[in-house]
Structures are given as C-alpha cells and as structure tokens.
Amino acid sequence: MKRFFSVEDVENVDVLVEEALQLKQNPLSKNDLGKGKTLGLVFLNSSLRTRMSTQKAAQNLGLNTIVLNANQEAWSWEFEDGAIMNNTTVEHIKDAANVLSQYCDIIGIRCFAGLTNKEEDTSEKVYSLFEKFATVPVISLESATLHPLQSLADCITIKENLPVNKKPKVVLSWAPHIKPLPHAVGNSFTQWMNQSDYDFVITHPEGLELDTQFTQGASIEHYQEKALENADFVYLKNWSSFRDYGKMPIVENDWMLTPEKLLTTNNAKIMHCLPVRRNVEVSDALLDSENALIYQQANNRTYAAQIVLQKILESNEKA
Amino acid sequence: MKRFFSVEDVENVDVLVEEALQLKQNPLSKNDLGKGKTLGLVFLNSSLRTRMSTQKAAQNLGLNTIVLNANQEAWSWEFEDGAIMNNTTVEHIKDAANVLSQYCDIIGIRCFAGLTNKEEDTSEKVYSLFEKFATVPVISLESATLHPLQSLADCITIKENLPVNKKPKVVLSWAPHIKPLPHAVGNSFTQWMNQSDYDFVITHPEGLELDTQFTQGASIEHYQEKALENADFVYLKNWSSFRDYGKMPIVENDWMLTPEKLLTTNNAKIMHCLPVRRNVEVSDALLDSENALIYQQANNRTYAAQIVLQKILESNEKA
Amino acid sequence: MKRFFSVEDVENVDVLVEEALQLKQNPLSKNDLGKGKTLGLVFLNSSLRTRMSTQKAAQNLGLNTIVLNANQEAWSWEFEDGAIMNNTTVEHIKDAANVLSQYCDIIGIRCFAGLTNKEEDTSEKVYSLFEKFATVPVISLESATLHPLQSLADCITIKENLPVNKKPKVVLSWAPHIKPLPHAVGNSFTQWMNQSDYDFVITHPEGLELDTQFTQGASIEHYQEKALENADFVYLKNWSSFRDYGKMPIVENDWMLTPEKLLTTNNAKIMHCLPVRRNVEVSDALLDSENALIYQQANNRTYAAQIVLQKILESNEKA
C-alpha cells in the first residue's frame, strides 16, 4: 500500500479486515517494523479517537510519532497555486508538505470539509495538495469527503458481530444534529459497504442525498421505518445537505433512533463513529445497551490504523 | 494499587515514600515494566510540573505516553446524565472515558475545581464520572478537591529533610493571592499529613477554613505567628473560601511569609507546590534561600508519579 | 559542548559541519546515546521545522522528548527580578527554568524577539534568564537575536552544494514582507558566514542595517543588483529595522528575488529558512526551480540538531 485515502487504495477489503483481526490477537507481533522511522500526524481539526488510536497503532509497530496541531502550533497555510502571499497565510501547503516529508516516513493528515465551498470540498483541495507535494506516503485521518480509517474499523467491527447463518443487513441512517456536519463518515461507510456482499441500505430524509459518486449502487430508502426492517446493524450519522451545500434543511419527522424503532430489526447492533450527540441522534437507552458497538468501533480504530501503517511500512521496505 | 485519587488508595504512606526514595536511587531499574503499554494523560487545565514529571516517570518505566489537551485538541464534554445534547457540548464524558480506555492501560486526568458550584466540586463530579466510565485504572493529576501526586512528592521531600532527633513540626500556612484558587493542594497535604506521626498545624485567617472532611483531626491555629513557632517545615498555599464558596474574603493581616516570620521557627524549610506568586505568597528572600525545598519538591514529582504508575502496572500484572 | 546559543559555542564550524554530514550518512549510528535521557522542548512561539526536526533528531539518538507549548499548556511567565507578582503572570521564569531542569537532561527553548523593546531583545532577556536559572544545558530553538540551528543547517547545505574550483560567493539579501520580522535569521547567518572563508556579502535597503555586533567584518552592499553579481548562493530573508526598532521603513525599489535578477549570478542556488511568503519575498519561479535549496535546508535541520544534541550528550558523559 502506497497511500490510504479511500477504499480504492485497498486491494481487497475482506483480506485487510481479516489481517486486522489477526493483528488484534497479537498487536505487538511486529514491534520492530517501524524502528527508527517516524509517523507525522498533522491535525487541522480536533481529534480524540484518531489522535489516540493512531499513536497507539504506531507504538505497537515501534514507529515514532510526532504530532503537529498545525493551526495552533505552527503557521496558517496558503492553498492557492501562484498566490501572492501578502495576506494572513504564512506558509504555502506546498512548502509545509515538502518540509514535513523531510522528517517523516509516513504522514497522516486531518482536514475536514469547510462546508462553505462545495467545489473545494468535493475536489479534496487541501488533501490533494498536501498529498501532491508530500514526498512520502500520506494517509487520511479524515478528509473533506472520506474517513477511511473509521470505515475500516467499522468493517472490522461488523465482521466481529456477524449474525449466524444470515446475510447481514446493514442500514446507514441519517440522524438529527444541531449543526451542519460534513459528509465524510457517511460517504466513506457507503463506499466500504459497497465493496461488501452485505445487504446495504441508506435511509435519510429527502433532500439529504449524499454525493452520488459515493452512493452509486447503494439502495436508498426515505422511510426510516421501512429501512430498519430486519436490520442487523444500524449505523447512525448526521450529515448536512449536499445539494444545498452545507445547509440544514428542515426535517419534519423524528429521525432520532430509539428502542421502539429497533423492534422491527433483527435485534440490530447500534453503530456510531463518535462523538455522538446523545438523545439527539440516538437515545441513551440504545447507546448504553448491549446492542451498542460504539466502544468496540473505537477500539478497532487502533487495529485499522495499525494494519494500514504496517502495509505501508512493508510496501516501503520492498521498494 | 488499582486507582490513585487520594491518600485512601495507599495502603501505607510510609512504605510508599520509602519505595519512592529507593526508586529515586535507580530510576531506570524497572525500565521494561511498561513495555507495550500506554499511559494517557488528559488535561482539562494547564499543567507544567504534572505534565512533565508524569511523562518523565512513564519514560523511566518504558511506558508510552499519549497526551490529550482535551479542550484544545478534542471536544468539549457533557457531564449530565441523560442530557439532551443539543447545545455546546460535543461529547459525553461517558463516551470519552470509555473510548480513552480503549487506547490506554492507565489514564491520568486533571480537572480543577470550577469554584462556582460547591456541590459539583465537592462531589468531584468530573473526576468521579470519568473514573466511573473508564474501564482502566485512573490516576488523579489534580482533581477538584485533591492533588495526591503533589502530596506524595511533598511527603518524599519532607522525609529527605527530617530534622535530627526531633519530631518534625509541619505547618500548612494559608498565603495571599490575587485571585480565588481551589483547595486541592491544601486539602490533600492535610490528608497526607494526617496519616503521618508528624506534629501538623494548619494556620489560616478566620473564614478560610478548609473542608472539614479533609482537616478532621488536624490542629488549626488562626495566629500565623503562633503556628510558626518551632516549625521545621512551612508549606505555603493559597486557597479561597470554602464556606462562602470560591470567594476571597478580605484578610486584614499580612500573611505573606517573610524571613522575619521565620525567626521563631526551627530554621524552617519552605515548601510550595508551584507556581508561586513571588512577593505575594512568599518573599523572594525565602524562595531563593537555602531553606527553600521548592525545586526538590518539583523533582520528587517524578518519583511520586513513577512509584504510583509502577504499583498500578504491577497490580495489573498480577491480575 | 555545554550550550548552543550562537556560533561562539562552536569550537570549529568546519569540523561540526563535517561531523553532521557524516552523521547524515548514518543517522541511527548513535541510537543508544540518549537512552534514559530526556530532551525538553519549550515553545513560547509557533514552530514547524524546529519542532519536527529536533524531535526527529532526538529520536535518532534514542533520546526521549517532552514538548511544552508554554503559553498554551502551562502558565504565563514573569521575567522581572524581584517582581511583586500580583498581576497576570503566574510563574517566574526562574522557577520554570529550575523546575524544567528537574525533568530534562537538555532543554531547548524558542523565544522570539518581541520587537517592541530593543534593549530587552538585544540583551536576550528571556533566553538569558532561562539559561541562567536552568541547571542543565540549554539550546536555542531561535532566540530574540539568533537562530543557530538554522544557520548550522544552512552551512551544511552550502557545503553539500559548493561550486567546483571556485571560492563560493554567498549573498544574504533582504527580502520584502508584509509585517515586521525579527532579525534572528539574518544576524545568525551573518555570524556563521563570518566564520567561513567564503566571499560573503549582505545586501539590503539603506536604513535596514543589521546590528553591527553581528555584521562586523561583513561586506554590505546597498545595490541588490551589484551584490548578486557572480553569486553562488543567494539567501533571502526579511527583517525589520534595527535602528528604528521593529519598524518597517518604506522601501522604494523592488527587492523580491526573480529569475531575471539571477542572470548575473553564477546560476545561484536559492536559500530561505521558511516559512516563505511566495511571490512577495521570492517568486514561485525560483522557489520551485532546481536552484532552490529550501527543502534540503529543512532536511538538514535534523542533522544540525542531532550533531548538537550528540555533542552535548557526549560532553555530559565525559563530565
């Protein structure tokens, strides 16, 4: 593996999930692989799970980590090619990416969607520029449109909880929130589910369609109740409008997931990438129930990051 | 040891101090104990000594450390059980504690008193919730009411400076400050001194009584001059009113410690947990004198943290 | 080496550069030298290159690193001796330096010029006080007047790019900027060049003279065009007025370096410490050309830091 930006960088999702599960059995088995090498983690946005799990993964591989909170600790970045930098930005992303590559063998970067400029977000302007100018492998710690480490952890978690003798039905359900959120987790989960042979359904209010470049082939059902029937896994996630970009259309029905809504499911497991707005997106009764897989998902973030870092290190070694 | 929140989590203070002193002689003697394990340090407030000394202690044990400045780097936390999270808090402490436990073998957390809600501070709302939901051992890096790593370092420092052939007299003296401060250091030092067989006296202006749940059994003397007589150690620390919670009553007399006030002591050693407001709490003449133990206290923070981490790691190993 | 504040702390620049180049061939050759030891990196200002390269250097030496963003994570410092600390500063630099020395074997500190008080900056008030009160070796991560790790990296880079059979001509050229900047990089590069046997010329608009204590002996040429003739290296850097301290005098001519200006040079290499204001200080056409050494300079920051840390560790070992 030379990069990790989306599911398209994975040769075979099933095999990667299986390898992650093996590694989870013995996390320190390749504790020397990263010796003398450095992972740079660059955050343009807040992070708890990604920050912690990726550091933990690196430690398990004997890889040194240097964290950079780019906006707080370093300099604000210019993204325009050819810009006359006579304003507030202090360093061009071209220089930052090139320079960070001098100190790191792998760089992870987090750069959320700004939700104000659809074209910039959709084209992954920040991530693409960073990767273009970096001279070492880059992995996404969540970009404007995708969150592949989360999706890989989600796939690992589903694999650990497969129903017996049944093709699993996985539902991605839009959930209410109080402010407009990016589409990355929804897009990304859809992408990875499209690679599986699970029965996958997305449910969301009309007007809240995800970008079709990620949903292609996925079933979409606007009635949450109908979508939930016989579900084995329900993944809750809010996102803002893609069509009316970054806006929050008024949603009439109550989309919060509650125990009542679970009655028609196959005693479905509840998934969320966290942080979750409790009793807004999902009720406490579900999040605190045995059906919730949320902490197992968080736990699997370590092994998702670790298998990706391992693949990149091994691929570099061969090169 | 399964947790470290207060002196009550210590089986025998004398033995723990003695073990810390032995470890100080050879800090790298158990450099493999933490191998492959991770300490998470979560700061909801500023920190210099605790941040540095605990990382140093972890390094001495071969334990990896991941630092999280929770408010700056991650998400603001919700503390209310059952809250409908439709406001500014982004992640419930329940989820944060559970998630951090997925990546860490031990978690240290710093959460100062807010000094606005007496009941919340006194009940250790934040610390208790965090510990309740964490699934790994938690240690206090200073909570609303106590600062046990500081007190353990203070006990180590006193042990290293015991007067010869004399039962030591230790005085905890309230000191002036320009803004209301928490009671944690005062409460905690009192708790640990109450476990010793030293002659221990607290002196403070009337109206500035500490919480009796911590002072119980300790001598209180409102005349600083009288309290200082024949003292071997004077520990200076400001705290705000506990009765009129978080307020600063007008204090008429000058409580700043000066060389003149030391004349009736037994050439007392000067202690302070730092940071210290020089020439407000204590005069430069004392802080810069040979009597000051302030840097030795800071140094012993490493061994206090290290012996606690060691005990928890060893206790986990047995489990 | 016992400290690293300026070129004056280096016995022989040529030898140090040569040793750094050897170490670059085999960066992990002394991977055990720092075992069990701790480097503290204290930032009072932003940092990317210094932050990353010094951590990388420490890792290469097996040295643990603890980073402290002093203003964000700890307490604001008091610098006045004898101050009655009844205002906004919370901890005296005396105490901070002494305390940090309890946890670290070497401390690096970054403290930029404030550009408002010439005397304070020129006397290196902050750095001097920190070093005075620290009880372990201190290295500069850029102080008010000097940036020696940058200059050492610059010397390494020049050595790697020497013209054949020609005494190299090195030009330090003032470059335009949109806000007043410190003099540290300009002063420091001048200091190190004055130790070399290169042909060294400084060019800047009249009124923008650097402090003569650093320029002494260096040629100064106010016509950029004339200075550039036959140059092998052109180092671009902005600084504000030293005479009219911290101000930006109006500069009539266009001092931005462009390809046209390079025509009279000996196909000069372009150097800049970064971050660079593209198309203000230097044009993209040069920064993105093969003549640019900017990323090589950034890369050599690691080996500059590593050879300095190595010298200090070795010197401590002997002691």
UniProtKB/TrEMBL annotation, chains A, B, C:
Q: InterPro entries annotated for this entry?
A: ArgF'-like, Asp/Orn_carbamoyltranf_P-bd, Asp/Orn_carbamoylTrfase, Asp/Orn_carbamoylTrfase_sf, Asp_carbamoyltransf_Asp/Orn-bd
Q: Which HAMAP family match?
A: SOTCase
Pfam families the UniProt entry points to: OTCace, OTCace_N
What's in the keyword line of the UniProt record?
Amino-acid biosynthesis, Arginine biosynthesis, Transferase
Q: What is this protein called?
A: N-succinylornithine carbamoyltransferase
Question: Which reaction does this enzyme catalyse, per its entry?
Answer: N(2)-succinyl-L-ornithine + carbamoyl phosphate = N(2)-succinyl-L-citrulline + phosphate + H(+)
- Similarity annotation: Belongs to the aspartate/ornithine carbamoyltransferase superfamily. SOTCase family.
| Entry annotated with the keyword Cytoplasm | no
Tell me how this protein assembles: Homotrimer.
Q: In which pathway does it act?
A: Amino-acid biosynthesis; L-arginine biosynthesis
E.C. code: 2.1.3.11
Protein purpose: Catalyzes the transfer of the carbamoyl group from carbamoyl phosphate to the delta-amino group of N(2)-succinyl-L-ornithine to produce N(2)-succinyl-L-citrulline. Is essential for arginine biosynthesis.
Q: Where does N(2)-succinyl-L-ornithine bind?
A: E142, H177, K237, R277
